[in-house]
């Protein structure tokens, strides 16, 4: 194992927090995807990084699992299986969180480590490549950009004391890249001397007397620190945000599941007592599967099997909520909105009518749209065909999606 990455995500994000926010900034979505997930994906996709250790808040296990596990699909899920270590808890300062991450990967014994803020989701492969190049010659490397504003030193009353020569000033970013044994030792030494407030890892290296080499960063590798940064990030990711949602798309979905021995079927997110269950690799929710495919159809993004292959054992018995939420996320990622869903269940039994309100509620919640945009219908097939013979249940769905206007 040659290179590990530590992503620190244990901060409280107090400067970016709006009154309506119930979670720290790393769990907020920008462009339909959690900030932490965006950051993590960059590291998962980089082939030179062998292991990733995320450091999270001690209360954030559920938040982390909800933000990360269900959203990593396809190739990224494969990379996560190979690289992503279970998260560890951080501490009261960034420095302590980094140290916890460094200690957690001791058994991995990497040659190099890249330490990165979860709050910097715009990290690019080009910056990572420059870090790897610099690590060939240096034990300690810092991604940074030259200061471009004129810098003033100001007193407590707001009066300028002096203008500082900016020609030698750089703004520190992350990743900060090190020889692993060196930075672990330096961090442990600082901690043991009760120095806990270094604001970055290069400062820890400087403190033990190691020269730190500058690696060119980028202004877009900004840290999301304030509310304005979050707004700016949204427009960077979704440049279409300001465009009208006039590109109307329609998709259809169809699914069938056969009956098997059991005592309840799950349809439209609702469990209905019945003489049989539905057979399937997942929970066999024929209704949510048809809706998921209808949404994916509307945005021309494959079908459920593309993103959640039935051959992959991790989806065995999976709640179909996961599939639908992922399709809804893909709409948001494109800056779009789901307009309505119309679903028809085809079966002789069980009776769907009594469960219609619960299904509409469940689907509306999963799709994050109001219940008056969700229609659930049912019909028999007049005892004809496989549904008529009570061999299984079929579902049809239509979804309408509004996407930002774009030039063809
Ligand atoms: N005790 C801490 C503090 C910060 N961080 C992480 O360090 C990175 C940089 O910190 P910053 O952006 O300043 O985040 P917060 O400390 O969360 O923000 P604030 O100071 O506004 O509360 C973030 O990814 C943050 O989650 C951490 O892991 N543990
Ligand atoms: C590490 C860092 O991102 C470098 O700019 C920064 O110092 C951490 O953020 P904080 O605002 O100092 O906590």
UniProtKB/TrEMBL annotation:
InterPro entries for this protein: IspD (IPR001228), IspD/F (IPR026596), IspD/TarI (IPR034683), ISPD_synthase_CS (IPR018294), MECDP_synthase (IPR003526), MECDP_synthase_CS (IPR020555), MECDP_synthase_sf (IPR036571), Nucleotide-diphossugar_trans (IPR029044)
GO BP, one annotated term: isopentenyl diphosphate biosynthetic process, methylerythritol 4-phosphate pathway
Binding residues annotated for a divalent metal cation, in chain numbering: 255, 257, 289
Sequence positions that bind 4-CDP-2-C-methyl-D-erythritol 2-phosphate: 255-257, 281-282, 303-305, 379-382, 386, 389
Entry GO MF terms: 2-C-methyl-D-erythritol 2,4-cyclodiphosphate synthase activity; 2-C-methyl-D-erythritol 4-phosphate cytidylyltransferase activity; metal ion binding
This protein's pathway: Isoprenoid biosynthesis; isopentenyl diphosphate biosynthesis via DXP pathway; isopentenyl diphosphate from 1-deoxy-D-xylulose 5-phosphate: step 4/6; Isoprenoid biosynthesis; isopentenyl diphosphate biosynthesis via DXP pathway; isopentenyl diphosphate from 1-deoxy-D-xylulose 5-phosphate: step 2/6
Region: 2-C-methyl-D-erythritol 4-phosphate cytidylyltransferase, residue numbers: 1-248
The entry's keywords: Isoprene biosynthesis, Lyase, Metal-binding, Multifunctional enzyme, Nucleotidyltransferase, Transferase
Pfam families according to UniProt: IspD (PF01128), YgbB (PF02542)
Region (2-C-methyl-D-erythritol 2,4-cyclodiphosphate synthase): 249-408
Domain 2-C-methyl-D-erythritol 2,4-cyclodiphosphate synthase, first and last residues per copy: 248-401
Site, as annotated: Transition state stabilizer: 15, 25, 281, 380
Name of this protein: Bifunctional enzyme IspD/IspF
């Amino acid at each position: 194992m040659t290179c590990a990455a530590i992503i620190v995500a244990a901060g409280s994000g107090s400067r970016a927090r709006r009154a309506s926010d119930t979670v720290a900034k790393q769990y907020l979505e920008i462009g339909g995807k959690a900030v932490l997930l965006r950051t993590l994906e960059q590291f998962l996709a980089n082939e030179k990084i062998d292991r990733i250790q995320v450091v999270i808040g001690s209360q954030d296990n559920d938040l982390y699992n909800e933000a990360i596990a269900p959203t990593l699909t396809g190739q990224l899920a494969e990379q996560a299986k190979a690289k992503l270590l279970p998260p560890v808890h951080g501490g009261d300062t960034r420095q302590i969180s980094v140290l916890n991450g460094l200690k957690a990967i001791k058994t991995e014994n990497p040659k190099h480590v890249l330490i990165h803020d979860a709050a910097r989701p715009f990290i690019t492969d080009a910056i990572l490549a420059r870090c790897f190049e610099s690590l060939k010659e240096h034990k300690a490397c810092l991604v940074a950009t030259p200061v471009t504003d004129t810098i003033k030193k100001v007193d407590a009353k707001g009066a300028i004391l002096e203008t500082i020569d900016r020609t030698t000033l750089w703004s520190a970013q992350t990743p900060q890249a090190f020889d692993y044994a060196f930075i672990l030792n330096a961090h442990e030494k600082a901690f043991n001397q009760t120095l806990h407030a270094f604001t970055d890892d290069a400062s820890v290296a400087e403190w033990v007397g190691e020269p730190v080499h500058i690696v060119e960063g980028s202004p877009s590798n900004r840290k999301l620190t304030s509310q304005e940064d979050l707004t700016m990030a949204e427009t960077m990711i979704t440049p279409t945000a300001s465009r009208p949602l006039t590109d109307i798309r329609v998709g259809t979905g169809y699914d069938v599941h056969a009956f098997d021995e059991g005592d309840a079927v799950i349809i439209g997110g609702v469990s209905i007592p019945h003489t049989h269950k539905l057979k399937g690799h997942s929970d066999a929710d024929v209704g949510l599967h048809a809706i998921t495919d209808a949404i994916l159809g509307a945005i021309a993004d494959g079908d459920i099997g593309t993103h959640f292959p039935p051959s992959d054992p991790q989806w065995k018995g999976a709640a179909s909520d996961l599939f639908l939420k992922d399709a809804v996320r893909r709409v948001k990622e494109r800056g779009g909105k789901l307009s309505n869903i119309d679903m028809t269940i085809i079966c002789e039994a069980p009776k769907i009518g009594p469960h219609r309100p619960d299904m509409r509620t469940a689907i509306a919640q999963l799709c994050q749209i109001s219940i008056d945009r969700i229609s659930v219908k049912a019909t028999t097939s007049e005892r004809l065909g496989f549904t008529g013979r009570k061999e299984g249940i079929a579902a049809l769905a239509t979804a309408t999606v509004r996407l930002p206007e774009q030039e063809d």
